[in-house]
Amino acid sequence: MELYTLFNGYIYGDEKQKREQPKHWHFWLPVLAYYTGAYSDEIGNLTLSDISKQEQVHGFTFHTHGKLQARFVPIHPALWHAGLQDYLHFVEQQGHSRLMFDLPAKSGRFSEKVRIWFSGEGERLGYLQKCGLPNVDQQGMKTAISSLRLNFEQQIHISAIQQGNKAAMLYLLGLKNDGQVLTQPQSHQLKQILTQVRVINPNIHWQRFTERHGH
């Protein structure tokens, strides 16, 4: 997946598209998916109370995916750099508890709405196509919002092997180890592995997104 193109598209630039109807989740959801490895439904369900500090490490607790284990995922420095603190204040000031408050659920799920916005449907172009990206990558794999989780997985896999901590990688992905629920590794170990996820575009900022101008 062309991450550079994706994170340098119009959402993360200075110009709005014609007839674009920007939503805050358009900015945050791909960034959160990339830096946490969470699925769009899990991100859609995140609330302010799912953010906590453990052993001096700030993180999100994901606990709404039926097949995955609940898990504490440290907040990558790039998310603070992108204006997360300001955004959390904004959500609170607006009287919302859900971080993606302007992402509506469809039949109790958020993923459908996200999929159509990101990948398009029928005649409707998604963010991918508007960035000039194909729906299928060079390996013949379908690109979707879940490709960001795949990328996260590949990066923390390398990081975990280097640090000899496979259990921490499985934990961050919400997976079991041979059918066994994993106990949470120490927060600083999780952070060590997670901060290896590379920053694609250091100029991404929520404030910049809200200040974009039309043509």
Could you please describe the fold and organization of this structure?
There is one protein chain. 40% of the residues lie in helices and 7% in strands. The protein is mostly helical and 215 residues long. It has one domain (3-210). It is globular. It starts with a helix and ends in a 5-residue tail after the last helix. The model has no long low-confidence stretch (mean pLDDT 93).
Topology:
Layout lengths: L2 H4 L17 H13 L3 H6 L5 E4 L2 E6 L8 E4 L2 H5 L2 H10 L17 H9 L7 H4 L16 H16 L3 H7 L14 H8 L11 H5 L5
Helix pairs in contact: 2-8, 8-9
Q: Sheet with the most strands?
A: 3 strands, antiparallel
* Through-space gap between termini: 28 Å
> What value does the average pLDDT take?
93
Number of strands: 3
- How large is the count of helical segments? 11
Please compute the radius of gyration using only Cα atoms.
17 Å
Low-confidence stretches: none
Strand order of the largest sheet: 1-2-3
Strand content: 5-15%
Q: What order do the helices and strands follow? A: HHHEEEHHHHHHHH
What structural class results from the helix and strand content? Answer: mainly alpha
Structural domain tally: 1
Shape: globular
Helix residue percentage: 40-55%
